[in-house]
Amino acid sequence: MITFILLISCGDKIEFTKFKSISNGSWEANKNVSFEFDIRDTIVPKNLFIHIRNNKEYSFSNLYVITDLHFPNGNQVIDTLHYEMADTTGKYLGKGFTDIKENKLFYKEEKVFPESGKYMLIMRHAMRKSGEVNTIPFLEGVQDVGFSIEKIE
Fold first, then answer.
1. pLDDT tens digit string along 22-71?
2. Quick check: 40 and 63 in contact, CB under 8 A?
3. Residue 12: is its pLDDT beyond 90?
4. Residues with Cβ < 8 Å from 137, sequence gap 6 or more?
5. How many other C-beta atoms lie within 10 A of the C-beta of residue 129?
6. In sequence order, what are the beta bridge partners of 17?
7. Residue 68, SS3 per DSSP
8. d(CA 29, CA 125)
9. Among 5, 36, 43, 22, which Cα is nearest to 124's?
C-alpha cells in the first residue's frame, strides 16, 4: 500500500507529457513535431522538458533544436537550443538499458505562463555537418520526440 501511494505522489508532478514517433527513426529537417497543451495555472512556475529517444544510429554528440512556442494571444517565442547527447568518449547520455536512450532535456526552467488557454510548441532539428550551411535532410537515429510539463517541488 505504501509503495502504491509513493507511485501516485511521484506522478502528481507531471502535468503534461506526450511523445511523437519519428517515422523510420529519421527526423526530416522539414518535418516539425508539435504539441498542443492547455494551461490553467498562471501563478505557479513549472519546468518544461524536451525528450529525445535516440538509438545507435544517432551519429552526433550533440543536438540543435529550434522551438517555436505559440501563446493563446498569438504571441510566439522562438529559441535555438543546444544539447549534449554523448560524453567525450562517445557514450550516449540518457537513460535506457538497450540501444535506445531517452534524454530528458530542460527546455524552460521555472516558467510561469502569462495567460491561460491553449499553447502550442513546435520543434524541428537544426543539425548541420561541420562546415556546411544546409540542415541535414534526415537526422538518423531519432526515434521519438516528447514534451512534458512538471510542477516544481
1. 999 999 998 999 999 999 999 999 999 999 999 999 999 999 999 999 99
2. no
3. no
4. 28, 29
5. 10
6. 148
7. strand
8. 6
9. 22
Residues in Cβ contact with 48 at an 8 Å cutoff, skipping those fewer than 6 apart: 106, 107, 108, 109, 111, 147, 148, 149, 150
Q: DSSP H helical segments within 36-84, as ranges?
A: none
Residue type, position 137, single letter = P
Instruction: Name the amino acid, one letter, at 74.
Output: G
State the residue for C-alpha cell 535532410: 137
Instruction: Report the C-alpha gap between 125 and 115 in whole angstroms.
Output: 28
Cα 27 to the center of its chain, rounded Å: 13
In angstroms, the CA 56 to CA 86 distance is 11
Which of 34, 42, 107 minimizes the C-alpha distance to 73? 42
Q: Which residue is it, cell 525528450? A: 51
134 neighbors 11 (Cβ within 8 angstroms) = no
Q: Write down the residue that cell numbers 516528447 correspond to.
A: 146
d(CA 26, CA 144): 10
H-run or E-run covering 24: none
93: cell is: 547520455
